[in-house]
Structures are given as structure tokens and as C-alpha cells.
Amino acid sequence: MTVLKTCARLWVDDLDASLPSLRTLVGAEPDLRFAFDAIELAVLGDFLVIAGPPAERARYAHASATVVVDDLDAVVAALTAEGGVVTTPEATSPTGRYLYARHAGGAEVEYVEWVPELVDRIITAPPAQAG
Questions:
Q1: What would the 3-class secondary structure string for 52-119 be?
Q2: How far apart are CA 18 and CA 119, in angstroms?
Q3: Is the pLDDT of residue 18 over 70?
Q4: CA–CA dist 85, 100 (Å, integer)
Q5: Closest listed residue to residue 30, CA positions, set 117, 81, 11, 20
Q6: Which of 18, 36, 87, 113 is deepest in the core (most CB within 10 A)?
């Protein structure tokens, strides 16, 4: 199991309003932007920007970070062996498989196994610079 990317979560009311300053800070365009349920998300550098109505964002606020891994099953095995528990069972999104887990120490994290196309484009390929 390998951690491919770790994203800090940024909670915003308006995705379009939040992206210009992040583009300047990161020096790049979003690697990924998509809608999921009633929220919009963008991956920009090491940020996962989550936008939408506060009540909808609250459904996902229990996790402190989003961690992209190469093998979700191996993550579950490692976490449960160390006393962690899956708090939201595996499901799918436009990016691949994901779940939420609480570590033995109490931290809750969203773990995602991206589809191969995203790993190739975002992790393997060099980042595009803003122009």
C-alpha cells in the first residue's frame, strides 16, 4: 500500500470564488473538478476544495483529510489490524472507490483509490503550470 497524495480539505461556500486565489498560490489549474451529490469538488495542488450548502458539506466534515492510495483493500487491512475501524463503508464516486476510517488514535480520514486514468494524469504526469 502506498499513499499517492494527501489533500488538505478546504470548505467553501462558492467554488468559483475560491479558485482564483488558490490558482495563484499553487501556480496551477485544478487537476480535477467534479460534482458529487449536492457538492462540488476541485483538487488543486494539495488542496481538496469542497463547496456547497453548509448542511451538505457537513455530511463530509468528519474527516480531517483526503488520502489517495494505490490499494484501498490494503489500507483497510492495515488500519483494522492496528485497531482502526471503517466508519463509512466503501462506495464509488466519479474518481474511484472511497471510504472513511477512524484510526485507533481517533483521527478520521477519507481514503480514496482513484481510477487508473486519474493516477496517470495527476500523480504520474508532471503538474501543469498556470499560464
A1: CCHHHHHCCCCCCEEEEECCHHHHHHHHHHCCCEEEEEEEEECCEEEEEEECCCCCEEEEEEECHHHH
A2: 25
A3: yes
A4: 9
A5: 20
A6: 113
Tell me what the pLDDT averaged over the chain comes to.
Answer: 93
CB atoms < 10 A from the CB of 24, how many?
A: 10
37 forms beta bridges with: none
Quickly count: other Cβ atoms within 10 Å of residue 104's Cβ: 12
Model confidence pLDDT, tens digit, residues 86-102: 999 999 999 999 999 99
Cell of 128: 501543469
Q: Are 40 and 94 in contact (CB under 8 A)?
A: no
pTM, rounded to two decimals:
0.89
Which residues, including other chains, have CB under 8 Å from residue 38's CB and lie 6 or more apart?
52, 53, 56
Residues listed for the chain: 131
Residue 48: all three cell numbers together: 481538496
